[in-house]
Amino acid sequence: MRGINTDCTSCINSNCFIKKHVHLEKMQDYMLEKTNYTCKKGQQFMIEGAPIQGLYFIYKGKVKVLKTGIYGREQIVRLSNDGETIGFRGFGTSNRYLIAASAIEDTVLCNFSNDVMHSILKTIPEFTYDMMLFYAEELNKSENRVKKIAQMNVRERVIDILLYLQKKFGHTNNLLNINLSRKEIADFAGTTDEQVTRILSSLKREGVIKIVNKKIGLLQVEKLNAEIIEHK
């Protein structure tokens, strides 16, 4: 990773946790303590079990968050893009990252060190309160996802992920604005590459998706939604 310069005050990511609080007078000094990095596609910037180096905020790009499962298999637990926070699991309660993270595409990151984050939390009550609400919301999302996934069969899990990708990242010319490999979809769905390939081929034959140069497009979103509606 190499350092670059970004400016929180001119950042367009209104959903960024830091951006939401730049109006606070006490935040001005802390913003000067930020470090910026760029990551190339496929580059890992957080290693599971490594010492925590504060929190990362995505300035621009896409990131996959990973957890090592049984037999050392990677499990994608979350996909994140512009403005989202990375590394909050374990922050404040553990000295080491509980997850790993790598760039899906060339990505620009903002980092606030442990010392800076702890100082912000201790001196800016409004920030601390909002951080508590953020953790509560993330916990609720995580619990709901675990419950939903446990009740779905493999086909339904793959469909659910395709719909999630379109909702989160959007599409251009009916093709998703994120290009995941079959293995990455499998790691997110908790299944195998072979099963994902078979399900995608089946959905293509049914005319509900299209595949162009390995990129996926959703042609009949309502039909896909109808197949998993009972789990929503």
UniProtKB/TrEMBL annotation:
Q: Which residues form the Cyclic nucleotide-binding domain?
A: 32-87
The UniProt entry, under InterPro entries, shows: cNMP-bd_dom, cNMP-bd_dom_sf, Env_Response_Regulators, HTH_CRP, RmlC-like_jellyroll, WH-like_DNA-bd_sf, WH_DNA-bd_sf
Q: Which UniProt keywords apply?
A: DNA-binding, Transcription, Transcription regulation
Q: Which organism is it from?
A: Flavobacterium flavipallidum
Asked if the record carries the keyword Lipid biosynthesis, the reply is no
Protein name listed in UniProt: Crp/Fnr family transcriptional regulator
**Cited Pfam families:** cNMP_binding, HTH_Crp_2
Q: This protein's superkingdom?
A: Bacteria
In what residue span(s) does the HTH crp-type domain sit? Answer: 152-222
Q: Does the keyword Metal-binding apply?
A: no
Species classification: Bacteria, Pseudomonadati, Bacteroidota, Flavobacteriia, Flavobacteriales
